Amino acid sequence: MSQLSSGICRRLNEAPQEEIDQLASGHTVQLLSIKKVAPTSSSTTATDRFRIIISDGVHFVQAMLATQLNDLVANGDINKNTVVVIDKLACNFVQDKRLIIILDLHVVSRDEEKIGAPTAPPSTQDAPAPAVVEAASSSVASPAISSSTGQTKQPQPQPRTGPSGRGGRSVYPIEGLSPYQNNWTIKARVTQKSEIRTWSNQRGEGKLFNVTLMDESGEIRGTGFNAVVDELYEKFEEGKVYYISKARVNLAKKKFSNLQNDYELSLEKNTEVEECLETTSVPMMKYNFVELSSLEKLEKDNTCDVIGVVKEVGPLGEITSKATNRTIPKRDLTIVDMSQYSVRLTLWGKQAEQFAADDLSVVAFKGVKVGDFGGRTLSMVSSSIMSISPDIEEAHLLRGWYDGIGTEKNFQSHTSGSSGASFGGFNRNEMRHLSDVKESQLGMSDKAEFFSTRATIMHIKSESISYPACPTQGCNKKVVDLGSGWKCEKCDKTFERPEHRYIMSMAVADWSGQAWLQGFNEAGLAVFGKTADEVHEIKERNEAEYNALMAQASGVTFNFSCRAKQDTYNDQTRVRYGISRITSLDYREEAKHLVDLLKSPWAQ
Amino acid sequence: MNDHISMRVNSARLSGIKGRTVRLPCKVLRLSDDTAIVEASDGGQVEIQRKNVDITATYVEVIGSVVDASTIKAMATLPLDSEGELDMQLVNDVIELTFESRFDKLFPRYKETEPSMPAR
């Protein structure tokens, strides 16, 4: 059994700031537990954070693992009961609370039994402080549990001589907020305040606004409705720090926010908001920048933070929203960074109109959404924050780099020209297999969704392959047989002979599954190599030959670009996959692509 | 089971495997009665000894035993012609890929040991 540095936990819990720095390294402790907590910043969802309990055999304290050590958890290098030596730690103080962060450690041994019987350290100079620590730690633990078990009532350690008794000045970390504790105060900076938005639907109408609040431990979204808007909207100012208490903690509606917190605040009539003038301990803005070259790795619809030099500012344009029929101003910027990649970023609304940064300024963006239009693009969403020439290290680095060598560089663009899925172009990089398409329920929402896939035709429904259509260019409406001719209702013209157009249902399959695709004229031409008129004629003339033709078309593989959409037919709603583009395989192209894939880092 | 393994090779990979059976995708440059000169996927030229073996296409895969680093004694050929030219660069890429150690489990390889030693 390893020898732990007993007494260190108590010291860590009690010592003042200066002593902590000296306490930093060389102590042996055992990790009693490692728990993943919801990531604190709204950046790339990949950043996990781990809360650990370290024990010295006599006492245990809570600490956070610095993200640079996350790999150790992922590899299994550290897990429950691992004994480690702390090489470096830091301690952040938030009012009366201390947050210990382990910055570096090395493993001594694993798979040991729990050493000693560690208990919570004794109370320190301030009676409520350990109460805050424990109440906070238990309230943090309980959301982690309760959010998975739902409604289990956690027996809360008696709401201590908690912070409320002291006029709410003992501050909770945002991380520690939960619906089970009401007597809290947070000290946070308003990093973003939305505009007042009004809505009206069948249930009524009203107005609301959102704020994003951030402190050392994390971020949380707050929303105020109707009367609260009048009271609090002016009070909150972006960039300022406030003490907030007596708001309701609810489960977060993830649909409306891309912050990582499981909870959000409802600002009510009795919510207290007090401006705080002592702002030193609250961080300005936490960024987790992603290099532009690695944007490809992020999935569409993720959010990320980026920082770059604005190389190009597009003109103010307008786009009409199909949903609301309103015009929205937009503006495209092109930003570049040291990874020598460039990407387009879209601003909307007021931001687009008011964009006034000089060309070539360094701008930081937090919480921008990744899109796949033409490769990769970025877009501001309501909770994104743009900061021009921020006073942070990365910005200075970028400035120096760009002024020095950046101007001459040619940047690799993410606008790869291989059109994104929304164009219906065949996007080889984003090809999905059929079981994936079905499982991800593409097209189940009301919107049409697009995907590309490669599959083999298994069966074509040969009963109805084509329909008689109006020969007029552009009009494909079905024409009715009047006996004396074929009439098109739309064009109000009668024709002697209709022009047949393909409309087919085909079962296609790949290694993972099967699906029914609906193909139109273009698809039929690709599959049969004959016009619908010809095929129709063969069908009439010689059934055997027709069947042979159908058989010949089966077993052929194509690349499909499809559109998935819900359709209601006779009370039955189903997802239908329509073929927007079909291409035969060019084996050379496909093989080349496979070779490239094998040579890429992915395959190593 | 040392026999019956025939790896697809290019001209460079012919060295060191004298006596082994190989497959060589290649383009026929010159044809004479008993021999042929072909160009392998890496551009190198190889002589094919082909008594009684027919070559019927421009691009063929020659299956035979290695005489030396630039000669193969053909046992059979497969025509590889298709629409347009065969992309020899692509063929070469694939050949080189098959030899990479990360794919050891996918492709049967020639045993390194001498045939006289007991197989492992």
UniProtKB/TrEMBL annotation, chain A:
Q: Which superkingdom heads the taxonomic lineage of this protein's source?
A: Eukaryota
* Cellular component GO terms, alphabetical: chromosome, telomeric region; DNA replication factor A complex
Membrane-spanning residues? none
InterPro entries with a match to the protein in the record: Euk_RPA1_DBD_C (IPR047192), NA-bd_OB-fold (IPR012340), NA-bd_OB_tRNA (IPR004365), Rep_factor-A_C (IPR013955), Rep_factor-A_N (IPR007199), REPA_OB_2 (IPR031657), Rfa1 (IPR004591)
Span of domain Replication factor A C-terminal: 450-594
Ranges annotated as biased composition (Low complexity)? 127-148
GO MF term (any one)? DNA binding
Subunit structure of this chain's protein: Component of the heterotrimeric canonical replication protein A complex (RPA).
Q: Which function does this protein serve?
A: As part of the replication protein A (RPA/RP-A), a single-stranded DNA-binding heterotrimeric complex, may play an essential role in DNA replication, recombination and repair. Binds and stabilizes single-stranded DNA intermediates, preventing complementary DNA reannealing and recruiting different proteins involved in DNA metabolism.
Any idea what this protein is called?
Answer: Replication protein A subunit
Taxon lineage: Eukaryota, Fungi, Dikarya, Basidiomycota, Agaricomycotina
UniProtKB/TrEMBL annotation, chain B:
* Biological process terms in GO annotation: base-excision repair; DNA replication; double-strand break repair via homologous recombination; mismatch repair; nucleotide-excision repair
What InterPro entries would the database entry show?
A: NA-bd_OB-fold (IPR012340), Rfa2 (IPR013970)
Output this protein's name: Replication factor A protein 3
Q: Which Pfam families did the record assign? A: Rep_fac-A_3
Which UniProt key words apply to this protein? Answer: Nucleus
- Quote the subcellular location field of this record: Nucleus
Q: Which SUPFAM superfamilies match?
A: Nucleic acid-binding proteins
GO CC list: DNA replication factor A complex; site of double-strand break
Spell out the molecular function terms from Gene Ontology. Answer: damaged DNA binding; single-stranded DNA binding
Q: Which PANTHER family match?
A: REPLICATION PROTEIN A 14 KDA SUBUNIT, REPLICATION PROTEIN A3
Give the UniProt family note.
Belongs to the replication factor A protein 3 family.
Predominant subcellular localization, coarse grouping: nucleus
